[in-house]
UniProtKB/TrEMBL annotation:
GO terms for biological process: carbohydrate catabolic process. Residues 1-19 form the signal peptide. Keywords: Glycosidase, Hydrolase, Signal. This is Alpha-galactosidase. Gene3D superfamilies: Aldolase class I. It comes from Gracilimonas mengyeensis.
């Protein structure tokens, strides 16, 4: 065997390479995950922790779509394995090369697969295609990490698979859902309607024993899809990272590959795991962090309970809001949020005639006089027709492929183009006004349109290609976030992309996530688990107004998953006699009870233990948080009577059990396979404290 050591210093990246071609088959391993190529460059994925094979044999996982054909069979011509050390870490890199010759086409395919020591069970892939023929090729698209998973042979569960899916649609569907037969969801990461789009570029499918996730690991948003498909498959489901050349402009991607030219796919990945999607999302987060992405630590202020004036909706009066503040303070809330309805229009962020008798600065001072912090609702990127920005700063408006201004349906507004320097400066100046001149302590950035924008075709003189607007959207949020924290270092920046599947490209530029208009308590919990995986186990996650939960009263779903609690009650009765959110005596007792529980334990500051329970297959649904040496469990079901497992306890340690909602003593258990008999409706909360 011949060894070569070559030191290469390029853009701060150091690679150390060792050539090795002794294996019979090209193979790379990461933890318990092994990827093997056959002589057609098809791959087999083996995860030793799975009870049965996740996929059947070798599959064409990386394919090229060219001249209306799908090309999947490339004859193996060579491979080598190398050690690698770069900004992500050290590990092994496998390069596999194959050729295809048919119908006058000659194409070389080179697959690079990299496994890093600090990212077990994850393999990063990238594919290059070179046209070695005499004629140009029309590139229609490509698929990477395309795998068809098989169900367990003997599965006694109601569903063969559960999934995490990241497409954003007007239906505001669940991000976590079971997969039955004949299911398909494209999970396109661009716009899926006029103002719904974007997401986190990861799709995960799992069985009761194990699962696979695929995605792309680029640091900018890209207009790809992550389809989950079981159509026409018996007890199987397929996932992939998929690129369609028609989804982007010719300026961004030249569809004709001339002789001698080559192009590369995005950097994509496959990761295997036990349990649900939490492990794969956490591994994706670690991969981004290794590339330099920073998810901000939440300030103490981000964990404080929130009251929002949205109970009065847009037609609130200043008197209504101010008269509610004494009760807000009395009940223990620390934040008061002024919601939609204070502005002249989206695109004209001056105060409207509600403030004829007082200024916004005086209003904020009044909030502060009660010992409360003030947060302001705001919808960036939106401008109503007729508003000041729409009419006077028309060049900032985004122009779609049809040559029209892009609609934001909820406010009858139009998008601004985030790629323009004028748009960024406009938003920064607004933040300065809100927080420096008016004195706000935080921002509630709101709207389903926030998650993604379409390509802009109206500013060719100022951007290289239309998709620049898509790529620059996170940069705009960074400008907003940095400006806010420069003014007030403990400012809370909440981004609420109403109903959207949150974009991982946005999360680094907020320090408080939110369930963003959940349709029910289930969505509060599944979104909480997602944000904890993506942003960190102690991320400040706000469960949104309790009035959006089941029965408008389910504080337990926020508390049990480590969420910040909040409400939009109205008070006193005389202020809004017909309000469905009136703080009655009964509701006040409920708020006071959960406020005491929340402030006693402050579970959002604990470590969310997301890998202990499978949100899909485990019943009852369970979540766990470790804090101050104890583990806090929360179990959820419409009704349940039976045994629940208390996972994550230390072997040999004795624990005292308490219902931390009611204070009831529940006895004691040993950490060795601990469990307890219980019967409950909706939920039960159990604290396990070491003796």
């Amino acid at each position: 065997m011949k060894f070569r050591l070559i030191a290469i210093l390029s853009i701060g990246v150091l690679l150390s390479i060792t050539a090795c071609t002794t294996s019979k088959e090209p193979t790379i391993q990461s933890g318990d995950l092994t990827l093997t190529f056959d002589d057609q460059l098809h791959t087999n994925v083996d995860f030793s922790e799975a009870e049965e094979d996740l996929i059947d044999g070798f599959q064409p996982s990386e394919v090229l779509k060219v001249n209306g054909q799908t090309l999947s069979d490339f004859s193996l011509t060579g491979f080598n394995s190398e050690s690698v050390r770069d900004r992500i870490g050290k590990g092994r890199q496998l390069t596999v090369t194959g050729k295809l010759e048919q119908e006058g086409q000659q194409i070389t395919k080179t697959v690079t697969a990299t496994a890093y020591d600090n990212l077990p069970n994850l393999i990063v892939t990238k594919v290059e295609y070179k046209n070695d023929g005499q004629n140009g090729l029309e590139i229609n698209g490509w698929d990477n990490n395309k795998y068809t998973l098989s169900a367990l042979a003997d599965n006694d569960e109601m569903e063969n698979f559960w999934s995490f899916q990241s497409g954003t649609y007007p239906s505001r569907q669940d991000w976590v859902l079971p997969i039955g037969d004949n299911f398909y969801q494209k999970n396109y990461q661009g716009m899926n309607s006029s103002d719904y789009g974007g997401g986190t570029p990861l799709a995960d499918v799992w069985r009761p024993d194990a699962g696979l996730a695929v995605g792309h690991s680029e640091l900018k948003p890209h207009l790809v899809s992550l389809p989950v498909n079981s159509e026409g498959m018996q007890s199987k489901v397929q996932i992939a990272v998929q690129f369609d050349a028609d989804s982007i402009s010719q300026k961004k991607f030249n569809r004709v590959l001339s002789p001698g030219d080559s192009f590369s796919t995005l950097e994509t990945f496959v990761t295997a795991h036990k349990g649900d999607f939490y492990a794969s999302m956490k591994n994706y987060r670690k991969l981004l962090q290794a590339k330099g992405v920073q998810f901000p630590d939440a300030p103490e202020t981000a964990y404080e309970p929130i009251w929002c004036a949205w109970g009065y909706e847009r037609n609130f009066t200043i008197e209504q809001v101010v008269n509610t503040l004494p009760k807000v303070k009395e009940l223990g809330f620390d934040w008061a949020v002024l919601d939609d309805g204070w502005q002249i229009a989206e695109g004209d962020w001056r105060t409207n005639d509600k403030f004829n008798e007082t200024t916004m600065k005086e209003f904020v001072d009044h909030v502060h006089d009660y010992g409360l912090k003030a947060k302001l609702w705001w919808a960036p990127l939106a401008a109503d027709p007729g508003s000041r920005v729409h009419e006077e700063e028309t060049e900032m408006l985004l122009v779609n492929k049809k040559g029209e201004y892009q609609d934001i349906t909820w406010w009858d507004s139009h998008y601004l183009n985030p790629a323009l320097s004028s748009t960024k400066e406009y938003h920064k100046e607004l933040v300065r006004i809100f927080m420096e001149e008016w004195g706000y302590d935080g921002l509630k950035i709101d709207g389903q349109h926030l998650n993604q924008v379409p390509p802009d075709y109206g500013h060719e003189d100022r951007q290289d290609y239309p998709e620049k607007s898509v790529e620059e959207l996170p940069v705009l949020y960074k400008e907003i976030y940095d400006t806010a924290l420069d003014i007030k270092p403990d400012a809370v920046v909440e981004i609420c992309p109403c109903g959207a599947s949150i974009s991982s490209f946005i999360t680094p530029f907020m320090n408080q996530s939110v369930s963003s208009d959940p349709l029910n308590s289930w969505q509060i919990r599944l979104k909480g688990k997602t944000y904890k995986a993506l942003m960190g186990e102690d991320a400040a996650y706000y469960g949104d107004h309790v009035e959006l939960s089941d029965g408008q009263s389910d504080f337990a779903s926020s508390v049990g998953i480590g969420g910040v609690i909040g409400t939009k009650f109205t008070w006193p009765e005389s202020s809004a006699p017909d309000s469905e959110f009136l703080l009655t005596e009964e509701r006040e007792e409920l708020v006071a009870k959960w406020m005491d529980i929340y402030k006693e334990y402050m579970l959002p500051k604990g470590e969310y233990l997301g890998e202990l329970y499978d949100i899909g297959f485990d019943f009852p649904e369970a979540h766990a948080i470790e804090k101050d040496g104890s583990i806090f469990y929360a179990f959820y079901a419409d009704s349940y009577d039976g045994q629940v497992e208390l996972r994550g306890l230390t072997d040999g340690q004795e624990y005292t059990l308490t219902n931390y909602e009611t204070g009831e003593e529940l006895g004691s258990v040993s950490g060795d396979e601990a469990s307890i008999e219980t019967s409950f409706q909706d939920h039960v909360m159990i604290k396990a404290s070491p003796k």
